[in-house]
Amino acid sequence: MTGHPHDAAAAEVLRLGTAYQASRALHVAARLGLADLLGDGPRSAEELAAAAGVHAPSLRRLLRALAAFAVFAEQADGRFGLGPLGRCLRADAPGSVRDLVAMWGDADHWQTWGALEHSVRTGESASQHLFGVENVFVRYAVDGRLGAVFNAGMTALSATVAAAVVATHDFRGARRIVDVAGGQGRLLAEVLRAHPEARGVLLDLPAVVAGAPSLLAAAGVADRCEVAGGDMFAAVPAGGDLYLLKSIVHDWDDERAVAILSNCRRAMGSGARLLLVERVLPERIEPVPQAQPLVLSDLNMLVRLSGRERTAEEFGTLLGAAGLRLLHVVPTGTPFSLIEASPASDADGTVALADRPHAAATRQGDPLPVFGAGPDG
């Protein structure tokens, strides 16, 4: 580099062009559980390699690489400890993201992103191109290992945003909360913990909710939460005061998104509310960090599923087609926004989008944590 003004731009482009190398190193560290192995203090690469069952010289190179990114820390005596970023990779750390990072690094995820060019050229999902299935959920249903990796990752993702959802939305008055396709119940558990007067219904496929009872019990809410194995495309439990869907609508094309929302509408009585927890795209993308997790998640939907991220206006259109009225779109201080809707037949007047903050995504000057592209959720 020569100091020419273009050099800074070139350096940034090169950083972006090789960013996958650092992320891949992080994936491997998470999948090997290295942060957990360092929980009791620094250890040598040889000790870690023996515990992890890997090649010691190669592991040392991985540890040194991630020490440059503050994930690990190389000691003066050659041992390695946890760096400032490495602590959240421990399984027992509050807000641990180990399972989420490990999911991003799974071969299934990595391979579909490797076929991004195919998806851009053809519009076909990489899942269809590589595996002959329209979206990854088909594979999760038949491959127990893939399903387990995904469910663990989604539970970790929900844990990263649950506190913001609970703090942002007023759940008072919602005595029966139905979490549609709620996975193993992490988000619902946090809502119920914060509101002991509420009861919950957790709906997801039987194989998914099989892991919910232990999580709900650990959260101390199992006695207030019904676990229902079922298919949201078939029916949604009726009688809820609030229908909660996190990272569901973005997984699907418009037709099937409307089908899901329509089933929720059929289950809703007068006065019930629908709450979507979704990333909301701004109408125009600005080159700011806050936009990056939103647009990368949109590409993730392109390669892995048949869905897409949407703008506030597009969410309003989907809701309207399902017989619902968009009320508010509220930022949470994370890449996720809360989209509240009511039955269109209710007497409440529509709150104009222009009168509300559309989403964290539209307020691109606000400081937001830059999460990676969401997995499939």
Blueprint of the fold:
Layout: H1 5-17, H2 19-32, H3 34-37, H4 45-52, H5 56-67, E1 72-74, E2 80-82, H6 98-104, H7 107-114, H8 116-122, H9 126-131, H10 136-142, H11 144-168, E3 176-180, H12 186-194, E4 199-204, H13 206-209, H14 212-218, E5 225-229, E6 242-246, H15 254-267, E7 273-281, H16 292-304, E8 310-311, H17 312-321, E9 324-331, E10 336-343
Parallel strand pairs: 3-4, 3-6, 4-5, 6-7, 7-8
Antiparallel strand pairs: 1-2, 7-10, 9-10
Helix pairs in contact: 2-5, 2-6, 4-5, 6-11, 10-11, 11-12
Note down, in words, how this protein is organized.
The chain has helices spanning 5-17, 19-32, 34-37, 45-52, 56-67, 98-104, 107-114, 116-122, 126-131, 136-142, 144-168, 186-194, 206-209, 212-218, 254-267, 292-304, 312-321, and strands at 72-74, 80-82, 176-180, 199-204, 225-229, 242-246, 273-281, 310-311, 324-331, 336-343. Among the domains are: 20-91, Arc Repressor Mutant, subunit A, CATH 1.10.10.10; 162-343, 3-Layer(aba) Sandwich (Rossmann fold). Helix 4 (45-52) crosses helix 5, helix 6 packs across helix 11 (144-168) and helix 11 (144-168) packs parallel to helix 12 (186-194). With 377 residues, it is an alpha/beta fold.
Compact summary:
With 377 residues, this protein is an alpha/beta fold. Among the domains are: 72 residues, Winged helix-like DNA-binding domain superfamily/Winged helix DNA-binding domain (Arc Repressor Mutant, subunit A); 182 residues, Rossmann fold, CATH 3.40.50.150. Helices cover 45% and strands 14% of the residues.
